[in-house]
Amino acid sequence: MTVQSKENYEVLLTREFNAPRELVFKVWTEPDHFGKWWGPKGFSLEISRMDVRPGGLFLGCQKSPDGMSMWGKFVYQEVIAPEKLVYVQSFSDEEGNTIRAPFNPNWPLEIINILTFAEENGKTTVTFIGGPLNASEEEQAAFDAMKPMVKQGFAGTFEQLEQYLASQQ
C-alpha cells in the first residue's frame, strides 16, 4: 500500500487487490457486503440505509468492541460503476443529521472521498483520495494533527477488505 500526501488533497492510499474490478466495486456499493468489512479493526457496522447513486445516502452505526456507537453518513456525489465513487462523509445522528465528531469538536464536518477502481490482469487497484471540504482553519488543523491515525485506520480497513474479497472468490 502506498500512503502519501499531496498538496491538492490530504490523504492518498493506493492498494492492489487480487480480485476483479466488478467484485471490488460491488463490495463497496452493496450493503450485504459493505457491512462485513468497512471500518476500524474490531468494530462492527450496522447499516441503516445505503442508496449508492448521485444524491443517495449511506447511513450506518459503527460500534467499538467496548460498546461505543458512532453514526456516520456518506452523501454520494458521483457513481460510475465499476470505475469511480465520490462521496462526502460526515458524522451524524441516527436520522442522518450532520453532527460534530464525538472525539474532537474541531474535526471537519465534511470529508470528501474520491475512489477509483482500475483493473489489470484480473487485479484491481483502488486509489483513495480524501480530505476536508470547506474546512475552517481550526478544522484543517485538527485533520492535519490526526492524519497519521486516519491513514492507519484506512490501512486496517483495506486489510479487512482484502480478507473479505478473498472469501468471496
In short:
26% of the residues lie in helices and 42% in strands. The protein has helices at 21-29, 31-34, 137-167, and strands at residues 2-6, 9-17, 44-50, 57-63, 69-80, 84-92, 98-99, 111-120, 123-132. The chain is globular and about 45 Å long.
Ordered list of secondary-structure elements with their pairings:
Elements: E1 2-6, E2 9-17, H1 21-29, H2 31-34, E3 44-50, E4 57-63, E5 69-80, E6 84-92, E7 98-99, E8 111-120, E9 123-132, H3 137-167
Antiparallel strand pairs: 1-2, 2-9, 3-4, 4-5, 5-6, 6-7, 6-8, 8-9
Could you walk me through the main structural features you see in this protein, from its secondary elements to its overall organization?
The protein is 26% helix and 42% strand. The longest helix has 31 residues, at 137-167. 20% of the residues are buried. It has 3 helices and 9 strands; from the N terminus they run ββααβββββββα. Strands 1, 2, 3, 4, 5, 6, 7, 8 and 9 form a 9-stranded antiparallel sheet that branches. It has one domain (2-45, 81-89, 102-167): START domain (Alpha-D-Glucose-1,6-Bisphosphate, Chain A, domain 4, 2-Layer Sandwich). The two termini are 22 Å apart. The protein has helices at residues 21-29, 31-34, 137-167, and strands spanning 2-6, 9-17, 44-50, 57-63, 69-80, 84-92, 98-99, 111-120, 123-132. With 169 residues, the protein is of the alpha+beta class. β8 (111-120) and β9 form a beta hairpin. It is globular. Mean pLDDT is 92; it is low at 1-8.
Supply the key terms.
169 residues, alpha+beta, Alpha-D-Glucose-1,6-Bisphosphate, Chain A, domain 4, 9-stranded antiparallel β-sheet, 3 helices, 42% strand, globular, disordered N terminus, ASHA1/2-like_C, SRPBCC domain-containing protein, START-like_dom_sf
